[in-house]
Specification:
Layout (H helix, E strand, L loop, with lengths): L13 H6 L2 E10 L5 E7 L6 E4 L2 E4 L11 E8 L4 E6 L3 E3 L8 E9 L4 E4 L4 E3 L4 E10 L4 E10 L8 E10 L2 E10 L15 E8 L1 H9 L5 E6 L2 E7 L5 E7 L2 H12 L5 H6 L2
Parallel strand pairs: 1-5, 4-6, 5-8, 6-9, 7-10, 8-11, 9-12, 10-12, 11-13
Antiparallel strand pairs: 1-2, 3-4, 12-15, 13-14, 15-18, 16-17, 17-18
């Protein structure tokens, strides 16, 4: 799988390549003849280590970072009719490297017909001096269900964040439904036309039954926004009826509470599947 233009960079120097981490984890979930979901592939590649728990599949970080120069990739396939809830046990802190090179993270998700996926890891923290690139690519069947949560914290306590280029691309069936990007550190990113004084940014993507539930709960509104506990947010309907919600907040706790409010009954993949 190609890494795409977002991850194109100058060649790593010999010194940085000796210390940089290259990790690629691969996950495959299938529905067995009894209707249960089994993980037939959990190909870990430290620091990307996944463990199956009663709360779902969890990423357990086995090293700090990513650091500048590191390149991480997670590839997950959810087979037809399967359901999966994937999260993490702690926040990811992106740190600068010794050689001043960017780090990168690619998430590639493939969700089959009738499958349900809830992807909701803990937040990504962009530490001071970090240079990070994040890309999320979803390849979806027409009749799948997805709740995808992406939370970003801009700097650790008392510090300004580094830079981060974030992009999400979603293809459902045979057509693209979303191409969206955001750059922390670009000119004007924290001005009135950007996110202002916000310290946290979250995006929630609802596809299939979760999107239908959202629309029915909010009167079929196609573009709405509001305030909730110091969190400003907006919701927009995509071309296929999916919903993209974006929230920003000067505090992390109000943002996390907003995410919980948005995902509501989709907090577990089983509940999400029950909407179908």
């Amino acid at each position: 799988m190609g890494s795409g233009s977002l991850f194109s960079a100058e060649p790593h120097s010999e010194s940085s390549s000796l210390h940089a981490v290259r990790a690629h984890a691969r996950l495959v979930a299938v529905r067995d003849p009894h209707g249960s979901t089994r993980w037939t592939c959990l190909q870990n590649d430290p620091p990307l280590t996944f463990r199956n728990t009663p709360q779902g599949l969890m990423c357990v970080s086995t090293a700090a970072g990513p650091l500048g120069g590191d390149s991480l990739c997670v590839e997950a396939t959810i087979g037809p009719g399967a359901y999966a809830s994937i999260g993490s046990t702690g926040a990811t802190v992106v740190l600068p490297g010794q050689w001043g090179e960017p780090s990168s993270y690619l998430l590639a998700l493939d969700v089959g017909p009738g499958a349900t996926l809830r992807w909701a890891p803990e937040p990504t923290v962009i530490a001071k001096g970090a240079q990070h690139r994040m890309a999320t690519r979803l390849t979806l069947a027409d009749n799948c269900n997805v709740v995808l949560v992406d939370e970003m914290v801009l700097g650790r306590h008392g510090e300004q964040p580094g830079t981060c280029a974030q992009r999400i691309d979603v293809v459902r069936g045979d057509r693209p439904i979303l191409r969206n990007g955001f750059v922390v550190g670009a000119p004007g990113w924290n001005g009135p036309a950007g996110i202002g004084t916000a310290r946290g940014v979250a995006q929630v993507l609802l596809i299939g039954a979760p999107a239908q539930h959202w629309l029915s709960s909010h009167g079929g509104a196609t573009a709405i926004g509001g305030h909730a506990e110091d969190c400003r947010w907006s919701a927009s309907t995509l071309v296929d009826g999916s919903i993209l919600l974006t929230g920003i907040s000067p505090g992390i706790e109000p943002l996390r509470n907003w995410v919980k409010w948005v995902t509501g009954p989709a907090n577990e993949a089983r509940n999400c599947a029950a909407w179908v």
